[in-house]
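Help needed: design a sequence for this.
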């Protein structure tokens, strides 16, 4: 297959090239994000390989189909950014990487919880300035606290196991309860109960029309005073403006984000010499009790190796006649 790889970073080309060694696909690594303006770079290719902030709305898919592209291979688990109706109409196969490393995301999430609780991000800066005072660094024992996990798929279950290891009481909510979550010690409750009883609330459900702004003003009002809210899933699960109001009022005592509603304009690029025009984001980073990472939860060697292997596997399995029968069922989005 001739494949246009969009949003390529050095680590993408390294791991994809290694995985492609025997498969022998013709990979063209492109630095730009996939947008209506860059879609023409895929002319002459059979497939595009895209990441989380590439634009896969109907106009882009139409341009890709016109350019001769027949397949979209996502290097991500989430596929909320793809207009699946348009893909179906245009006969484009769409694949994703179903579970490349739930540990990578769950462990990063645990890192955010620990860093926020014990103010490690602040302590790091203090010690570098020879400020060894402890005022303002007071944390709490995680042991015995209640952690609420929204979404108990692969990542949620990993995170439950980690928190159970800390001796936390774990509450969970999911329209499809998982045996593994219960075996790991979680108790399923309705979302409202989870929000009312949890000291830490963490989101691990996908972004869908139903979960858009799942955490809004009214849900924040249901949470415990001083709650820790963590989102490593997708930015638009939370209403950022409402969360800022929650931080201002003290209802939200700690906020850990690896994803942000408007991250497409920011994340994965070095913008350190630019003035950011995103008021909500600059506001968020100004809070001492907010810790933001730029969509790096997936970013481990193990995950990148698995992403590359799964992506190349899907490209190889796609039949010359357009058949998707050989593609792993959980990798095939439609
Ligand atoms: P998964 O598909 O294994 O699990 C998602 C779970 O959420 C399912 O059990 C589903 O039933 C549940 N769910 C759906 N709607 C819900 C709702 N309204 N309330 C509660 N639960 C609901 O997905 P996985 O692999 O665990 O990933 C979860 C999410 O993490 C992905 O959708 C993706 O957005 C995000 N992600 C973020 C990464 C990062 O680097 N920050 C990397 C990989 C995934």
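Sure. Designed sequence:
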């Amino acid at each position: 297959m001739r494949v246009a790889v969009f949003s390529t970073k050095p680590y993408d080309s390294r791991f994809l090239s290694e995985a492609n060694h025997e498969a022998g696909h013709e990979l063209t690594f492109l630095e730009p994000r996939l947008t209506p303006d860059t879609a023409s770079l895929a002319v002459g290719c059979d497939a595009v390989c895209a990441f989380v902030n590439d634009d896969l709305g109907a106009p882009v898919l139409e341009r890709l189909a016109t350019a001769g592209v027949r397949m979209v291979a996502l290097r991500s688990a989430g596929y909320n950014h793809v207009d699946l109706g348009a893909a179906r109409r245009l006969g484009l196969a769409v694949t994703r990487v179903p579970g490349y490393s739930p540990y990578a995301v769950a462990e990063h999430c645990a890192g955010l919880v620990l860093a926020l609780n014990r103010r490690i991000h602040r302590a790091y800066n203090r010690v570098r300035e020879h400020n060894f005072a402890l005022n303002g660094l007071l944390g709490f024992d995680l042991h015995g606290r209640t952690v609420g996990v929204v979404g108990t798929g692969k990542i949620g279950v990993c995170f439950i196991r980690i928190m159970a290891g800390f001796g936390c009481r774990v509450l969970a909510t999911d329209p499809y309860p998982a045996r593994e979550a219960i075996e790991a010690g979680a108790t399923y409750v309705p979302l409202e109960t989870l929000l009312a009883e949890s000291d830490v609330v963490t989101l691990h459900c996908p972004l869908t029309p139903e979960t858009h702004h799942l955490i809004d003003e009214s849900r924040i009002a249901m949470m415990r005073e001083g709650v820790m809210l963590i989102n490593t899933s997708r930015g638009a699960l939370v209403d950022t403006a409402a969360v800022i109001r929650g931080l201002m009022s003290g209802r939200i005592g700690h906020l850990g984000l690896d994803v942000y509603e408007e991250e497409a304009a920011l994340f994965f690029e070095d913008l350190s010499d630019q003035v950011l025009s995103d008021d909500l984001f600059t506001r968020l980073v100004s809070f001492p009790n907010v810790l933001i990472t730029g969509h790096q939860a997936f970013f481990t060697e193990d995950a990148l190796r698995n992403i590359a292997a799964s992506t190349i596997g899907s490209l190889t399995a796609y039949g010359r006649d357009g058949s998707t029968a050989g593609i792993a069922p959980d990798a095939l989005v439609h």
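The chain has two domains: 2-100+300-331, 102-292.
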